[in-house]
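stage 2 :: seqdesign
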């Protein structure tokens, strides 16, 4: 049990090393997910500057190696004392030795050139200084996938854990490669270029049944809620589905709409809309020109734009 606790604490400190450098360079951390074999810091965006990404990638293993050095030094200092002293503190010294070994293994494992692990990010940062960012990502992801395949084959014969790690590496490399391509493709594209300009609004006093008729008529899945020219919220088809059929005549839009409004200006970059949707798990964003609603952009609009850009 103490082994697993020590491992998770070491993984947390490893990930906090990444997070500290990320925050220092202006990148916010959304969450840290821990696994038995490591952790993942979820960031709003990966910095495009190779030098910054290199610092962030090396921060985690650096923390692991530093912890290992500290605990190994303590172990060796106390190890040199008398036998009677060793008998008293032997359990603690064994713990220090174990923590030191765990961190050495954690640091070395994460430096393997398997993108999107730390070593893979170091590789991409190195490649990005010599070629385009998207090509560097593709090459690093390709190496990461090959590494995952070999690890998976090894895992089939020797250990289930290697097979599981290989699966996560392969999926992670594929997803980050696609994410990078999308972000690069959307560079320079403004929200006004992809948004739906004909905005249909509803009022908060409308019943859910009337809203459903509105949805069938205009074929949109989400609508800004406006009363007397004031934006009050947004209501979607997902909100409607939560209301039982027998109650839809009496339940008002004001009772089911979301009052938390996410908005952007039409001159903002389309990639900002994608990030906002991803971070907040929403399907559409209200677009404004100044304080006036000028459009609405949805995931469908962004997907359509990406498909057109891919063909071009």
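stage 2 :: out
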């Amino acid at each position: 049990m103490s082994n697993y606790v020590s491992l998770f604490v070491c993984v947390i400190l490893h990930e906090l090393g990444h997070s500290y450098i990320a925050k220092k360079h202006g990148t916010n951390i959304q969450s840290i997910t821990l696994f038995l074999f490591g952790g993942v810091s979820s960031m709003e965006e990966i910095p495009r500057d190779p030098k910054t990404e290199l610092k962030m990638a090396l921060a985690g293993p650096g923390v692991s190696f530093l912890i290992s050095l500290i605990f190994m030094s303590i172990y060796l200092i106390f190890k040199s004392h008398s036998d009677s002293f060793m008998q008293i503190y032997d359990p603690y010294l064994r713990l220090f030795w174990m923590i030191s070994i765990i961190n050495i293994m954690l640091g070395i494992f994460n430096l393997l050139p398997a993108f999107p692990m730390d070593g893979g990010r170091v590789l991409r940062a190195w490649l990005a200084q010599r070629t385009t960012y998207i090509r560097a990502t593709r090459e690093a992801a390709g190496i990461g996938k090959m590494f995952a395949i070999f690890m998976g084959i090894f895992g089939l014969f020797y250990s289930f854990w290697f097979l599981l790690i290989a699966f996560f590496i392969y999926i992670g490399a594929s997803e980050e490669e696609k994410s990078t391509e999308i972000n690069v493709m959307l560079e320079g594209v403004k929200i006004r270029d992809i948004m739906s300009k004909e905005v249909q609004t509803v009022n908060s006093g409308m019943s859910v049944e009337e809203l459903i008729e509105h949805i069938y008529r205009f074929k949109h899945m989400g609508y800004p809620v406006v009363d007397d020219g004031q934006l009050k919220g947004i209501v979607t088809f997902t909100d409607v589905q939560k209301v039982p059929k027998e109650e839809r005549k009496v339940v008002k839009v004001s009772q089911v709409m979301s009052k938390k409004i996410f908005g952007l200006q039409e001159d903002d970059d389309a990639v900002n809309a994608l990030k906002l949707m991803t971070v907040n798990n929403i399907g559409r964003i209200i677009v404004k020109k100044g304080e006036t609603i000028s459009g609405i952009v949805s995931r469908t609009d962004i997907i359509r734009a990406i498909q057109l850009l891919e063909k071009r």
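stage 3 :: structure notes
- The two ends are 56 Å apart (CA to CA).
- The chain has a mean pLDDT of 84.
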